[in-house]
Amino acid sequence: MAIWITGDTHIPHDIKKLTSNEFPEGKKMSKNDYVIICGDFGLIWNHTEDGEEKYWKKWLNEKPWTTLFIDGNHENAYRLNKLPKKEMFGSNVGVVSNSIFHLKRGEIYTIQNKKFFCFGGAKSIDTMDRIEGVSWWREELPSYTEKEYGLTNLEKHNNKVNYIVSHTLPLNLRNEIQNVTYLGDKWYDDTCKYLQHIYENIEFEKGFCGHWHVDQELKKYTVLYSDVIQIC
Q1: Stretch 24-52: mean pLDDT, rounded?
Q2: What is the domain count for the chain?
Q3: Where are the beta strands (DSSP E) in 73-125?
């Protein structure tokens, strides 16, 4: 059994990294193995399921592994929140299909005996080019309730997990991102402040995120975009 993780897929734009040519390791995997997407999954986008969504859902379902994803800022938050739920890995997940599942904000999942604290969401920098309720949703930013829920769950686990999976970075790590010159409104994101609190007060081995469209190691965090790496 194995767990792999990568950054944004923005289906269909950045899904190529999970093709057989780009990710040959996937051929040896089974449904008991997992690929985690660090937000901006992009499959659930339009108001209702259309032909393109059906195509990519089928494409992912036919992959040997099980796909898990947290939400980013380029998601249809309304539809994600309406997904049917089931208990999986010790907490609730959103069910997209029988092998695609949404890992929810503030939940702690035990996957292959490792504890994952998951916290999606981030601020978009392109809201001026998007339409609320059509291509942008206010729920991209975590609510106070979601943040408190995450802290409460961490306390139940003695503030100790193996991994943190988020879409964006803790506040103090942003200065080290390689493409810092064009971050724009990504700089003003309260989600980063929350994750900084987690970073400073929670015992964990490693954090992973997407969002920044680079592949870079930053202290205890790995920022992912094109890379697909094995973590367990």
Answers
A1: 95
A2: 1
A3: 85-88, 91-97, 100-103, 108-111, 114-119
